Amino acid sequence: MPTSKLVVTTRKMDHDDLTDLLPEMPDVVSRILLQSMESQHRERLESVLAYPEDSAGADPALAGGIRLTTVTDIVGFFSFLGLASIMLI
Asked: In terms of pTM, does the model score above 0.70?
């Protein structure tokens, strides 16, 4: 398919679909498509493409590690107790 047809076709596509499609295309074609987009649309798409492929929807508890999860749980628990004790006084 000629690049000009791809440019016209991708203008009608949703961000999610483009995010899946662009990494599968040759680098030259991806760059041409990105350059043909409006700056706001391109910047938004580039920011999404900067993340690792399987990172969307990842559980923060699993992605952050056990220490980080434990610390945030403890801080949250004691913050809740602190607020509860202030409200009861």
From this structure: no
DSSP string, the chain: --HHHHHHHHHTS-HHHHHHHGGGS-HHHHHHHHHHS-HHHHHHHHHHHTS-TT-TT--HHHHH-HHHHHHHHHHHHHHHHHHHHHHH-
Residues 48, 19: contact at Cβ < 8 Å? Answer: yes
Crossing angle, helix 27-36 and helix 39-49, to 10 degrees? Answer: 140
**Tens of pLDDT, residues 41-63:** 888 888 877 777 766 656 666 66
